[in-house]
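[#protein-structures] MJ: dropping V-type ATP synthase beta chain here for a structure pass
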Amino acid sequence: MLKEYNSIAEVVGPLMVVEGVGGVNYEELVDIELQTGEKRRGRVIEIDEDKAMVQIFEGSSGINLTRTKVRFLGKPLELGVSPDMIGRVFDGLGNPIDNGPKIIAKKKIDINGTPINPVSRDYPEEFIQTGISSIDGLNTLVRGQKLPIFSLAGLPHNQLAAQIARQAKVLSGGNFAVVFTAMGITFEEAQYFIDDLTKTGAIDRSVLFMNLADDPAIERLATPKMALTCAEYLAFELDMHVLVLMTDMTNYAEALREVSAARKEVPGRRGYPGYLYTDLAGLYERAGRIKGRKGSITQIPILTMPEGDITHPIPDLTGYITEGQIILSQELYKQGLEPPINVIPSLSRLKDKGIGQGKTREDHADTMNQIYAAYTSGKSAKELSAILGETALTKSDKAFAKFADEFEKNYVSQGFETNRNIEETLDLGWKLLDIIPRGELKRIDDKLIDKYLGEKEEDLKEEE
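AK: finished. structure tokens for V-type ATP synthase beta chain:
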């Protein structure tokens, strides 16, 4: 039974306190009717005896404490889902904004979701090809994984996100879909994503949820939950492989801090609420695979590190929850590399499970380790050359330094339009390793070197 009250005691920012309520539940949906007849939506975020605190999605301006009616609907915030959502664009609360017809829902699902039972989780072990060599070759994305991208303000993470949304696919087959959610972005950025996916045809396998910078902060908190609810429906009820891209998690955390301050909660690190870790985990842990289900959810959250500080609470806590990170470098961006992925601090903790014979290629693991070692050696050699001069370098040091330059120029910097399959990425890796003397390839099995590289003339001369 619907319950209606006009006993508003206080309004602070996006929050409203209603007194004298009874039988109201946490996360319950609320209809608010202003004295002008305007209607807004909210949800219950706290209950204390006969008082309920309500978050108002559209903001609290214009609310009259005595003449505004508050109606508790007896249900949580839900998303109406349907296979027809694919190819559509929605706002942060799941309303269509692409001038298309209204979605006729097959069912309505609570956006807060239910945690996946750890016993029911299946281990991520299937390769997802993004078409980006720095990720596919060295920091492989695996189906069911959570692999965030750490960026800085001004770096091209939006172009990288659009590239992944266009190019990503599961090589083993199956229906693949992308759920793209944007939080607190500008209208120009939102239009860029829509235009890019539409132009390339990737919109036909995508669902977009767009929360703009001028939308209420409360809506921003619901947006990723809307997107993940849609992803869960596609993955676990329609058996699709779903890749969820979420940008920008920093804007989400800022909205959480804003609401926490309005609630007068005791702040934690940098003013963020103490439950920031729990809140982020509630989103990230909705990714994964379930035993007995064909579908899966893979997540790529994108966040801009405030002041480039990787120890800031948002990237710091994200790193604890997820299985690695892809880090964009301002230094590489200034050198003109696109995408400017710094492979040295980047890491995919599940990459070993998604590569090898039958998944990518037999030589993937060995070449990955050798390329990483050669690149770090090359960077060290270049630093040594800058201090002592090139004459201080050995023949091997010079080879490694050349490798580092060619690696950045040809392997990392592939542009935002180039889509390399895994075979092309691995073959390019061998081509670059040909710069290094064979005797220095200590991390690759000799049989693989003979098969993919052969013997160089200088190596034969040395043997003679």
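MJ: nice. Residues 199 and 451 are 41 Å apart (CA to CA).
AK: one more thing. The mean pLDDT is 90.
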